[in-house]
Amino acid sequence: MNYFWHLLFMIGLYVPLAYSLNLTLGFGGLACFCHAAFYGIGAYAYALLVTTAGMPPTAALLVSIAITGLLGAGIGLISLRFRGDLFLFVTLGFQMIVFAILYNWVELTNGPYGIAGIPRPGILGIAFRSPLQYALAMLVIDVGILALLFAVYRSPFGTMLKALREDEMGAASLGINPLSLYLQAVVIAAAIAAIPGACYAAYVTYIDPTSFTLQESIFQVAILLLGGAGNRKGPAVGVVVMLLLPEVLRFVGLPDAVAHNVREIIYGLLLAGLMYFRPQGIAGEYRMT
Amino acid sequence: MRLILQLLANGLVNGALYAMLAVGFGLVWRSLRVFHVAFGGLFVASAYCFHTLVMRVGLHPAPAFLGTLIFAGFTGWLCEIGLYRPFARKGAASSAVLIASLGAFVAMENFIALAFGNKLQTVSRGLARAIHIGPVILTEIQLLQLVVGFGTIGLLWVLVCHLRTFKALWAMGDQPELIPVLGLPVHKLRALVLVLSTVMAAVPASLICLDIGTDPHVGMSYLLISAVAVLVGGANSYAGWVVGGVALAVMQSLAVWKFSSRWMDLVTFGLLVTMLVFRRNGLVDPQRRVEEPA
Amino acid sequence: MNKGLTLNNVSKRFGDYWALRDVRAFVPEAKITAFIGPNGAGKTTLLHVIGGTLKPDAGTVKLEGEVISGLPPHAIARLGIGRQFQDVRVFKGLTVLQNAMVAAFPISSQICLPTWAGGGSESAILRQAENEALRWLEYVGMADQRYALARELSFGQQKLVSLARLFAKQSRILLLDEPTAGLSHQMIEKVVSLIQRAVIEQGLTVALVEHNMSVVADLANWIHFLHEGHIAFSGAAAHVLGNKTVREIYMGL
Fold first, then answer.
1. Which of A145, B129, B210, C208 has the fewest beta carbons under 10 Å from its own?
2. Would B169 be classed as within a structural domain?
3. How far apart, in whole angstroms, are the C-alpha atoms of residue A117 and residue C249?
């Protein structure tokens, strides 16, 4: 039973990741390959704040959101000098850089050894222990985040972001400031990705850089492209399918030693096949142009 | 002073390798307008082919090298037939092709890991002989890398300057719709680009494998190097790719002097960002007329 | 102070080729001014320079005495200059209604944060933009297709949507790049009458580039004749169209 709740928690963890990435990739059409970096920055900022700085979890969460948002603004400012393939490549580079920093800046992040002993958060003095409690807390957080994000999706801001995705020069000719809107989208997406980052750190109580690699970024983009980007249905479909896929593979009975590689091969081929046969994903509106 | 000369020499040796990678990546970018992420996967595949031929089949490195080149040409051709051609037929958007290419890369990397394991694989040999050239010391293998590298680049450069095929390739990059109109064989040209590009990856892949070995996960780093070299040097000219590759290698080599080699990806990428921000079209930029704003 | 657009010695260079050389022209308020000339004369480049998508290498563009050249395109658009592109650039993946609504949103809604602060004003803005958008879609006769995706429309219908967008944006000056190119006869008549109505009813200023001489003759009050990047001849429409040199260079008559 615990395993079921664990799985539910993981789905709850990926929901805000997919829906925030949807703002940049689905609405803005910005193929952002450093979402796992934002997720990782959030996780590390939270972990360091609650362990080294001894902050209470809520405060640490808020500060880690702010830090990730700020770094997102910096990364966004540089990457947004480019569009299309180059934007993708530059964000991919930032993903590599953030990973290199997490892995090599031993004084700050403890490098490959990671950060252990992250305290479990709780309510009213009772610390969360079981996956069920975590899953329920995640559910509450997800509802809050989705309310915020859906408000953005349907706002004039969201529609204008879509207009930029369809035709940047056309949108600018109507008075829309491309850099400002894109940057806001990147910052919001980064800041929101920090929340699941912190939740993950609080759940596993030990983090290391290998959770925030380029593969993870590719995985998150694959979630969105498989489910479909640019609307409210797609990301949910993507999260459920992509997180249940390994369970199906387990069911088939692959030995553990090769399971990881087989999974990655499937993701890779899926991505390539998807781009060819169904660029808008299962339930999406936006197709790569 | 002596240290700087030594670092420069090391940079130059790596520069020869990077320049080949840049040429391989640049060829595809220039003439197919494809951001060839799978290049990283093809690089690793070639390195493993070389390793297998030497260590498992037991060939001498020289015939193994030739075998690797043939294998590389074949995989490049497969990559065009199985991956890029269908997308080109459909007229797919460039970012869709890029993501598909990334998917292919991930699949290749993990397939190799599955088949050969995640460990570093080296080509065992005796201690490399060191050779003194004035104040600097290079190993035999470094010297081999330098000579083969710049030899290959020079040879291809002569071909690029004199063969009309390359003019057709550049034209294909500028106006792909014109090629069938001119009666040129589009599919053959595209396949040629991929074959050539992959061979250009296989040469440094074999040489690097011979020197320090390979593991399944180095592809992304070398892809980063190739793409950064092309963008830094200037995406549109052969000279730019070579200059970009050498410049990047020398920068990295000098950076090792100040920072630890752990920060190599950061140096690579820092160079790219600085370049793109301050000199967008790269070091070598043939003037072009741009009528419509991008 | 001049009302309207003034071009002072505008030059634009591509490499060593001068697409525009010392272009001096005036686009008077509430009139239709046409830029005509053979292919490659620099007409589209001129619109790019006025609209801010290209920066002039020399010279200035002034709107009512204020220099606007050098501003980014969105800033120029916010001053009331609306552009229609040759290839229309509608938002193909959005509906017709959304296309027009995007133009009708107030500038303040480009900041995302208030979305979360006050939920009530948000829907008011949406409703207002929708009304405004619908009004102009009706004006151009595209209201019944409001839920269609723009990519499903014909080229002519896309042109109508892009006109509705410009009206919904409350542009005071329209820059139209070949508004009738590629359109059927009926569609040309429709677009011509819409442009005329815009000038008469809303008092808009129009600058257009056009190849179709009968459209130019129907619409233009003023004509600037561009040849090899500079203005060879300008004046009242009838005068320019009747000019012998213009006829020789352009129409081969």
1. B129
2. yes
3. 83
Please spell the DSSP secondary structure of C100-152, one letter per residue.
HHHHHS-GGGGSSTHHHH-HHHHHHHHHHHHHHHHHHHHHHT-GGGTTSBGGG
The sign one gets for the Cα dihedral A196, A23, A32, A216 is: positive
Query: How far is the C-alpha of B245 from the C-alpha of B251, rounded, in Å?
Result: 10
Domain that holds residue C135: 5-251
- Asked whether the beta carbons of A96 and A214 are under 8 A apart, the reply is yes
pTM: 0.90
Question: Is B43 inside any structural domain?
Answer: yes
Would you state the structure tokens that stand for residue A183, as one six-digit string? Answer: 């940057």
Indicate the pLDDT class of residue C1, thresholds 50, 70 and 90.
Answer: very low
Cα–Cα distance, C216 to C196 (Å, whole number): 12
The total number of structural domains in chain B stands at 1
Got the DSSP string for A31-93?
Answer: ----HHHHHHHHHHHHHHHHHTS---HHHHHHHHHHHHHHHHHHHHHHHTT--HHHHHHHHHH
Do residues A160 and A175 make contact, with C-beta atoms less than 8 angstroms apart?
A: no
Runs of H (alpha helix) within chain A: 2-21, 35-51, 57-79, 84-104, 106-109, 131-154, 156-166, 168-172, 178-204, 214-227, 234-252, 256-277
Domain of residue C25, CATH code:
3.40.50.300
Smallest CA-to-CA distance from A97 within A58, A77, A130, A71 is with: A71
Q: What is the complex's ipTM, to 2 decimals?
A: 0.91
Q: Of A58, A97, A52, A53, give the one whose Cα is nearest residue A74.
A: A97
Identity of the residue in A100, A272, A276 whose CB atom sits nearest the CB atom of B266? A100
B276 interface with A at CB cutoff 8 Å: yes
- Flag if C15 and B287 touch (Cβ within 8 Å): yes
Q: Answer whether residue B53 is part of any domain.
A: yes
Count CA within 13 A, CB hemisphere, residue A86. Answer: 17
Identify the pLDDT of residue B289. Answer: 40
Cβ atoms of A44 and A115 within 8 Å: the answer is yes
Q: B194 lies in which domain range?
A: 16-123+130-216
Highest mean predicted confidence (pLDDT) among A14-23, A249-258, C124-133: A14-23
On whether the CB atoms of residues B51 and B205 are closer than 8 A, the answer is no
The answer to whether residue A124 scores a pLDDT higher than 90 is no
Q: B66: which 2 tokens?
A: 């030739």
User: Cα separation of B141 and A65, whole Å?
Assistant: 50
For residue C159 the two structure tokens come to 């042109």
Question: Is B73:B199 a contact under the CB 8 Å cutoff?
Answer: yes
Q: Which residues of C touch B287 (CB under 8 A)?
A: 15
Inform me whether the pLDDT recorded for B280 exceeds 80. no
Report B:273-292 residues touching C (Cβ under 8 A).
287-292
Q: A265 with B111: CB under 8 angstroms?
A: yes
In a domain, B81, yes or no: yes
Domains identified in chain C, total number: 1
pLDDT at position C2, please? Answer: 63
- Alpha carbon distance C12, A150 (integer Å): 45
Which residues in chain A have their CB less than 8 angstroms from residue C99's CB? 163
Region C35-58: what's the mean pLDDT?
Answer: 90
DSSP 8-state secondary structure symbol assigned to residue B19: H
| pLDDT tens, residue by residue, A229-254 | 888 999 999 999 999 988 887 788 77
Using DSSP's 3-state secondary structure scheme, residue C146 falls into coil
Q: Cα separation of A26 and C61, whole Å?
A: 37
Is A262 within 8 Å of B108 when comparing Cβ atoms?
A: no
Say if the Cβ atoms of A96 and B114 lie within 8 Å.
no
Q: For chain A, give the number of residues.
A: 289
Residues B146-196 have pLDDT tens digits of 999 999 999 999 999 999 888 889 888 888 888 888 888 889 999 999 999
Q: Are B240 and B228 in contact (CB under 8 A)?
A: no
